[in-house]
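Quick log. Single chain, no ligands specified.
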Amino acid sequence: MKLIITEKPSVAMEFAKVLKLNTQRKNGYIESGEWIITWCLGHLVTMSYPEAYDEKLKFWTLNTLPFLPKEYKYEIISGGVQAKQFEIVKKLLQRDDIEEIYNAGDSGREGEYIQRLVFMMAKPNPKAKLKRVWIDSQTEEEIQRGIKEAKDMSEYDSLSNSAYLRAKEDYLIGINFSRLLSIIFGRRIAKQINEEKICISVGRVMTCVLGMVVSREREIRNFIKTKYYKIIGNFGKEDAPIKAEWKVTENSKMFNSPLLYNDTGFKLEDKANKFIEYINGKKAVITELKKSKQKENAPLLFNLAEIQNECTKIFKIKPDETLEIIQDLYEKKLVTYPRTDARVLSTAIAKEIGKNLNGLYKNFKDEEINQYISKMINEKYSTNLVKTKYVNDSKITDHYAIIPTGQGFENYNKLSDLKKEVYKLIVKRFIAIFYPPAEFNKVNLVIDVEGEQFTCSGKVCIKKGYLEVLKNRLKDNEDDKTLDVFTNLKKGQEIPVLGYETKDSETSPPSRYNSGGMVLAMENAGKLIEDEALREQIKGAGIGTSATRGEIIKKLERINYIQINPKTQIITPTAKGEVIYDVIVKSIPDMLNPELTASWEKGLDMVAKKEIEPEVFMNKLEKYIISKVDKLVIK
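-> predicted structure:
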């Protein structure tokens, strides 16, 4: 007999359909022919609380810290359906007639951890071969391939090691630092915020995110606006003037002048007006006129962070809600695996991408999408992606980008309107990569007035290319405009001066994070980078993982450390959150450092890639905890 264990009953049913089994459920499993399929219900096993090691550890005292077990204890989640399902899975794993066991848990670190805990506690039949099914979607072909190409489960041991270490790290930091700070500072903080008692929750990633929110809020609160005055020159024809802005250069009379703010304008309006008096009546000459064509390719595909950010901007929903929606689309076979950091495809998938497109064209009854694909066919756009920026095996770890499978449309009409809209976002981003680049005419103009430089530029879209599909990416000033004002101008010619004016400006505070922007900032180790191409260039180890970032934001809101405006998704700290932040700044400040938090995540990734041994990571973690506890207890 062959046994498959999935993470959820719904996934088990999909496997049963693919294997053409009689899908009549027994008590917690399906058995038909040579196959048995059962399932977990998410986590069935959890790490034991400290009191399972010693009853005294139920009480929070400094003399029991640091708490660093030599051997970790685990237990079945007691009561309810989890305990019952574990017993069913355990009996099946131990059956004498089982020859092959397929771990078909979610294809990621957390999915690996859920299943490995069950295997560890259930002790499967030692004669059975253990295999791992790793799939990118729940389509019939992908499930068949996953079973056929299942590798020996030992090949995923390093991923399992990383998963166990992540859980231990969160467990040890949470228990030791939450207890430590609650014992030392709890009463004082409770009094400060008018609560009877308080537990200070500390988490490896959670605390870092709180720090990002509070420090940004305080930047905004302490920001003092500075007013300054730019100078704008009006040149050319009265009926179509060219507006150019003055900028300081080394040849300027005002170079390094204390009268200026940041080389972009004057601190005082009367000084700006005096400068205008100085250049009034002087000849204006075009010293630079660059006309160029610019091509812009479609953006890379969505990973989870990018689509979470997009859904927050467009639909004003939280990152965890976006993940729930895409997980549902995945389970309905409409899209590929959601918990991915990659924004590109693998070479193997790129070679067969026609299947996805054909499935969309033939079976997705959406007029707009069909028009886009029809144009691809009529214009003979290339679908050979292999040598494009959208395919890069080196940028894929567990899974490639989120794309439509071209299947699952029997489920589409049952979706809510919001889920349909999210699905169409993914489809449009996918189709856009086959379209030609957008093309722009650009003009950069520099005008010299007595050694002072005025500059302006214009950019107009002349061929929309992929922007026909992703219309929202076309800026207002790039569409349906002309560059006629620059016609007949030449370098070296004199240009009429129509006059000068001052323009009031003021400095702006940094923006607050919204929930989607926070996910992007977490992915980029604390940096909120607005430019999408730049984000991709500097991407490294982030804070948390694609699977956990939304949940971390949700937890901070649940424990009342942050609040999220439901209409705008803007994040602000609560009074409680700020007080907790102040305590951490004084006690364990490096817990607020995004780069340090990202380095821990990088260490877990190195374990998964077999670049360091698990013991090295664990030793470093234990030393870190001991040093922080010792420092505060001695104080």
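The chain has a mean pLDDT of 93.
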